[in-house]
Write a structure and sequence with these properties.
Layout lengths: L1 H9 L15 E5 L2 E4 H11 L13 H23 L6 H14 L4 H10 L4 H22 L7 H12 L6 E11 L6 H18 L15 E7 L5 H7 L11 E2 L3 E12 L5 E12 L7 H16 L4 H8 L3 H4 L4 E6 L5 H9 L9 E3 L2 E14 L2 H30 L3 E3 L2
Antiparallel strand pairs: 1-2, 1-11, 3-4, 3-6, 5-6, 7-8, 7-10, 9-10
Helix pairs in contact: 1-6, 3-6, 4-6, 7-14
Length: about 425
């Protein structure tokens, strides 16, 4: 979401709530515009919604000052947005509010009540969202060129930092060694190793498990990160395609042949799991019905395991109306599509298996997996992922420099 994305880039998340302010006063002036103590109070209260426990807490002067600094940055950026005639319509803000409510399993009215109970005025909340959208649009307009990633740059990233990255890449290798000692001379060992390599290449042999080569066997190294491969061998496999042998490599104790089985990246995987699940959702409005929701799903699981159809309960008792119409079917999903607590459970289940009731921000779920598959990631998808990774790595420094430049050309007078 735009609001979360921009706040993350500014990297100032507080889980605090302001103390009561009796008399409003100016706490900073930015290019002639004032920031009031009441605005700081509202900003702190809104950010306190990110507190996992949802409870107010005391805050230090350092935390308070960090939030004020963020507000100063926002004021400078909003002035820039106004200068460039960047705006946001009320329909967009209401759609964001509806999304926030849905993500918390609430109606907009219930979100209003939740904000009121937290001490946040709904109109102040809307203003804060509008600010975040404006800042995001300004960033896109001002920094689009600096964050642009070409196809060529993404392809280079895939072929170097992803395919051969020494900290994130992995390679699967088979290794054969022909040693030499006083009995078996160096020249003889070298000749034997060369004969083995020639035979392997000519016969295109990869059946390592059942064959010995001149009395020597390949050992399986398995998956290793590049920085865990001896430097002597690394240069010989770094650009070697899977299914190929290295040249004979000489060490202090013998001659070696390496075979590259496969490569993979821990940044961008070659394969991704997708799965199809059905679920039954019981929403939780407050602590009073939390146990009730849990117990009702436990009973449904017992009855399904006894032979009653999962689909019957999903259609009649699930609070997720959209999937209930399809007998609980959520369709196909990829890793990362759902919230972590839901996905962790779904990934552990076998086809046809039903979870225990699990808690997510939406309530309690029963999950049944109806299909699972591994899908090869297309080259187009890899290119898109690479571009996103490059932008993410670049964004923080670019945004920091952008804000720093605008602050340097602004008049700022802090009163606290």
């Amino acid at each position: 979401m735009l609001t979360v994305a921009f706040w993350t880039i500014l990297n100032i998340h507080q889980s605090v709530i302001a103390e009561p302010i009796v008399v409003d006063r100016v706490i900073a002036i930015v290019n002639g515009e004032a920031i009031l103590a009441s605005e700081l109070q509202t900003s702190l209260a809104i950010q306190s919604l990110t507190n996992a426990k949802g409870k107010p807490r005391d805050f230090s002067n350092t935390q308070k000052n960090a939030v004020l600094e963020k507000m100063i940055d926002e004021k400078i950026l909003l002035q820039r947005a106004k200068l460039l005639n960047i705006s946001v319509d009320s329909e967009t803000i209401m759609k964001i509010i509806e999304d926030i409510a849905e993500n918390q399993a609430l109606t907009v009215d219930k979100l209003r009540k939740k904000l009121k109970n937290t001490g946040i005025n709904f109109e102040d909340f809307k203003t804060k969202l509008e600010t975040d959208v404006l800042l995001s649009r300004l960033r896109d307009k001002e920094l689009d060129q600096k964050l642009y990633v070409s196809d060529t740059e993404a392809e280079n990233f895939l072929s170097t930092e992803v395919e051969f990255n020494l900290s994130s890449g992995e390679i699967s290798i088979m290794h054969l060694k022909v040693p030499f000692n006083d009995e078996l001379g160096k020249e003889s060992s070298s000749l034997t190793a060369q004969e083995i390599l020639t035979s392997l290449i000519e016969n295109k042999s990869t059946n390592f498990g059942e064959r010995k080569f001149s009395g020597y066997e390949f050992e399986k190294w398995g998956w290793r990160k590049y920085d865990r491969i001896p430097e002597l061998f690394l240069n010989h496999v770094i650009s070697l395609e899977p299914g190929n042998y290295s040249e004979v490599i000489e060490s202090k104790s013998g001659f070696h042949i390496l075979y590259v089985v496969e490569r993979r990246s821990t940044l961008i995987q070659d394969k991704i799991v997708r799965y199809r699940a059905k679920h039954i959702l019981k929403r939780v409005d407050d602590e009073r019905n939390e146990q009730e929701a849990f117990e009702s799903l436990k009973e449904i699981k017992t009855r399904v395991l006894a032979g009653e159809p999962f689909e019957y309960f999903a259609k009649r008792f699930s609070d997720d109306e959209k999937s209930a119409e399809n007998e609980g079917d959520l369709g196909w999903a990829y890793q990362g599509d759902y919230v972590p607590s839901f996905e962790r459970e779904a990934m552990k289940l076998e086809i046809g298996e039903i979870s225990d009731p699990i808690r997510t921000p939406f309530g309690f779920h029963l999950i049944m997996i109806i299909d699972k598959a591994q899908e090869k990631v297309s080259s187009e998808r890899k290119l898109t992922l690479a571009k996103n990774l490059i932008r993410e790595k670049r964004a923080r420094d670019v945004v920091r420099e952008w804000i720093s430049d605008m602050r340097a050309n602004s008049f700022i007078d802090k009163k606290i």
